[in-house]
Fold each of these.
Amino acid sequence: MRRPLPLPLQVVGMDPGIIVGKVLTRISRSQKHPCMQLHFADDTCYQILVDGYDPVHRGLPKALEMDPNLESLLDGADGQVKVDRTVSHCALITLTDKAFESKQREHRWDQNHTGVAFKFSEDQVWHCVWATLSDHENGTCIFRSYHDVYLDQLHRSSHKRRSRAPSSR
């Protein structure tokens, strides 16, 4: 058995083991940003986020990609689906994919990146989420790369937002 590669010293986000044993009630993904929310029966919510993503300075377009089983679960559900599944395993994993650039000459390389992988006790199938960066020119992808993702808790405010009424004079 091969020894697993150590994670970087500066790990971003939370230990994915924190969601093991929790009952997932809903999965949603943003239509505008590369993030996915995992809503649990205990009223906690965790997000799968792209490391270094800044909504103000987006840079190259980034997207979350996932295995076909998870993708088909979310397809046709407007990015949101109700589920009732217990997370039995969850971990950060290292993936290796072929990145490329093809502006003048085709250039390809292997790129390691971090994904979030999890299993549900109901189906015992590994599901994985990772991030891609891509640039298109005239409808053709001329650059594709990968980026790390991580898990972090979404903290909800206990105060409800009130709309501001215009002040009258």
Amino acid sequence: MDHLSPLRRLIQSHPLIDSHSHNLLNRESAADYENYPLEAIASSADGRALENARTALPSLRAITQLSELYDLPCTNWKDIQAAHDLYVSEDYENLIRKSLSGTHALLLDDVLSYDEDIASSSWHDKFTISGTKRIVHIEAMAEATILQVSNSRKNGESVWNSFRQRFQDALGEALDDANIVGFKSEICCRTGLDVDAYSSDDTTLGGSLIRILDSGTTRSGFAVDDKHICDWIVQQTLKAICFKKRAGVVKPLLFHTGLGDNRINLLRANPACLQPLIAQYADADIVLLHAGYPYTREAGYLASAYPNVYLDLGKVFPLVSREAQVKVLRESLELAPTNRLLWGTSGRFHPETFWLANRQFRQALETVLVEYVESGDFTASHAMKIAADVLFYNSNRLYGLDLTPSYTPGE
């Protein structure tokens, strides 16, 4: 018998906390490929770039592995679509249940929770052991707040004062909501991660808000894409997090970093840009999402140098090749403490994104940890603790979930 069998078994079967993912489509929208292309399961590209992605290694690997999920032979994306259609029409919930097998709890970044195509956060509870928790998107919160104050100018009120107070009140309510366990910023996709540690003056911020109001309507909405405002939103969130932490309420701020679509400026997506902000708000727990890819070493360095920084390894699974996934894990482990590593699928829309991410992450984790044990870097017992921590306990501790995994080691 392989002396590493217990380690392999634990990695492949230990329950996991999906510490960052998004809502699934409801059944009525699950086959709406015009708005939710199925090929996006294995790529963050869109439009014509998504057509090219079908020939990339992650897409080819996904075809092979999804055949196992569907229990149907698939050789191309037409086969994948046919199998997906079959499940959606006949047993969509079973497809979701299979895709979320082994998931103890979901922490959903529900920025799209008001979209009629998206299933509610609570609807996901039927597929996991523990209830779903929410992660609030702060830029979406700000856009909703701007919509509320859009008529303030007509009433002769100070738009900036009204927005500032309403946004701070919304932050306070979210911090007091037990169902909300964290916040998420996509400033990376808007103005970049080079966030100023100190806010601009009220005159500058007020002028920025007026420009945002002038660029949208109550019908189209208002896009928060001004650097002064975006930086302020992040700063205010971190200040509120630090204040609440003194009272024992711990809720981290998650940053989209690195890997994304064509909205990002790749140079300003480097998590190293956040270093001054991380140092300024040392009492706030900060999570760097997507392993910072392709800046994984920079992200790992920050997690090693700052005790308030965590590194979430999601989204690179299944969006990059198998070799790249293994490399991401190795680079993350170069410096980052293993108690600062988290696992979240970043799955969204289609249940297959969750299944592929979890399956490929467990495969890569087994490859890397077994190699380290066989090389004598640490023992199998150490490796088993690392695996259980990354899959479950680190997220359980950071987000204050107080969950107990239903895992029994095999003989």
